[in-house]
Amino acid sequence: MLRNWPILFIVVPLVELYLIIEIGSMIGALWTVLLVVLTAVIGVSLLRIQGLSTLNRARNSMAMGTMPAMEMMEGMALAVGGALLITPGFITDTLGFLCLIPATRRAMIRYLMARSVMVGSTYNSQNYRHHPHQGGPSQGGSRSGGRTIEGEFQRKDKY
User: Fold this and answer.
1) First CA to last CA distance, the chain
2) Which of 41, 60, 63, 143 is the most buried (most CB within 10 A)?
3) Category of 76 on φ-ψ map: left (φ > 0), alpha (ψ -120 to 50) or beta
4) Alpha helices in 64-145 (DSSP H)
5) Whole-angstrom Cα distance, residue 154 to residue 41?
6) CA–CA separation, 60 vs 135, rounded Å?
7) In this predicted structure, what is the pLDDT of residue 142?
């Protein structure tokens, strides 16, 4: 997956450039430049509104004593969306605007979180079976067969 990133940084700008040239030939160079600037200005103003809204929801979550995990992920999605919006081009602007729409932003976050949990963990649904005598995740057991390792924890500060 990481080997494909350099290709992405070559292909996306080339496609963006091609699309800008094609749109410019249809509507004119001045209108194309104005459209690219307009999408950036609208995107940045929407980004500010969405960012403040997400910040307020995060503050409310922390005031209620809960971790604002979704709000933190939304903040990262908004940062990515903002970077995409200030990048000249129509494809990046479309992706940036998708990061600004709350429903699509949350759907993308849920998809990425589910995908990262599947890829990043050693959990294999074929190896995990819930057995009442071994315990499951809700009964204090682990996903690796219900084995619990007990121990003590002691913190020793350097001060």
Assistant:
1) 44
2) 143
3) alpha
4) 69-86, 90-100, 102-120
5) 54
6) 36
7) 45
Q: Which residues of the chain have pLDDT under 50?
A: 122-142
Q: Is the whole-model pTM more than 0.70?
A: no
Encode pLDDT of 146-157 as tens digits: 677 788 877 787
pLDDT of 155 reads 77
Q: Which of 116, 37, 49, 109 is nearest to 74 (CA)?
A: 109
Residues 6+ positions from 95 with CB-CB distance below 8 Å: 81, 84
Domain residue limits, the chain: 38-116
Q: Which two tokens stand for residue 11?
A: 């292909």
Which DSSP letter does residue 134 get? T
Q: Do residues 136 and 146 touch, judged by C-beta distance below 8 A?
A: yes
User: What pLDDT digit, counting tens, does each position of 105-135 carry?
Assistant: 999 998 888 887 655 554 444 444 444 444 4
**Region of residue 135 (phi > 0: left; psi between -120 and 50: alpha; otherwise: beta):** left
Q: Which amino acid is at 122?
A: T
Query: Which pLDDT belongs to residue 140?
Result: 47
Residue count of the chain, please give it: 159
Q: Where do we find the tokens 């933190």?
A: 72
